[in-house]
Specification:
This protein is an alpha+beta fold. It has a single domain, classed as 7,8-Dihydro-6-hydroxymethylpterin-pyrophosphokinase HPPK (Alpha-Beta Plaits, 2-Layer Sandwich). The strands form 3 sheets. Strands 1, 2, 3, 4, 5 and 10 form a 6-stranded antiparallel beta sheet that branches. Strand 8 and strand 9 form a beta hairpin. 36% of the residues are buried.
């Protein structure tokens, strides 16, 4: 079994419920145990700015799935939620990103681990910090240190 961290986000079709439903689906993946869930955060859009705010979260799982099998499972959950990849960084019903898999570093056409841009994104590091502030991201630093460098304006914890 291997620890893995997954980011969740949504800004369409009841985003908070989309994220909570996705957490439940992640908890039911084969050979996988959902260990921890972050709090939910409302965050401003990133990239394409003319869209609704997002609801973001992160989960920690313990899994026997390979990184590629886990990625495939995430893509299946997204499709099940009606995800359409029409515009990069545009609005979406559900976005699941595999952030980090313990002991795995990859960089190919299909998957890069750890996620290459997470150190730039408060909407990823804020919920990840709830789960693993001391997690060392290879070549980048600890989650809490990376988060301290980012502008958190517009980010708020949901009740």
């Amino acid at each position: 079994m291997t620890l893995a961290y997954i980011a969740l986000g949504s800004n369409l079709d009841d985003p908070q419920q989309q994220v909570l439903d996705a957490m439940d689906k992640l908890a039911s993946l084969p050979d996988t145990r959902l260990l921890r869930r972050s709090r939910l955060y409302r965050t401003p859009p990133w990239g394409v700015l003319k869209q609704p705010p997002f609801v973001n979260a992160a989960v920690q799982v313990d899994t026997a799935l390979s990184a590629y099998a886990l990625l495939d499972a995430l893509l299946d959950i997204e499709r099940g939620a009606g995800r359409v990849r029409a515009e990069r960084n545009g609005p979406r019903t559900l976005d699941l990103d595999l952030l980090h898999v313990e002991g795995v570093q990859l960089d190919d056409a299909r998957l890069t681990l750890p996620h290459p841009r997470m150190a730039e994104r408060a909407f990823v590091l804020l919920p990840l910090n709830d789960l693993a502030p001391a997690l060392q991201l290879p070549g980048q630093g600890a989650v809490a240190e990376l988060l301290a460098r980012l502008d958190l304006a517009g980010c708020e914890r949901l009740p």
